[in-house]
Design a protein that fits this description.
The chain is an all-alpha fold. The protein is 47% helix and 0% strand. The longest helix has 16 residues.
Length: 59
């Protein structure tokens, strides 16, 4: 998945994770296609206690 800005790079995987968790979409990987988005997502995941998202929902 290509996502040019950092906020959108976290929002799309979160929404996909949520839709899959609700059973509205089959489980499948949703890889990111941006080194900056990957790094920023790793930071979101590492610091999940600092925001409202759980660690699994940031991956």
């Amino acid at each position: 998945m290509f996502s040019g800005d950092v906020g959108r790079a976290q929002m799309l995987p979160y929404l996909i994770h949520k839709i899959m968790a609700e059973g509205r979409m089959p489980e499948m990987p949703a890889p990111l296609n941006s080194p900056m988005a990957i790094k920023s997502t790793e930071i979101f995941s590492r610091h999940h206690k600092e925001h409202k998202l759980s660690a699994p929902s940031t991956r």
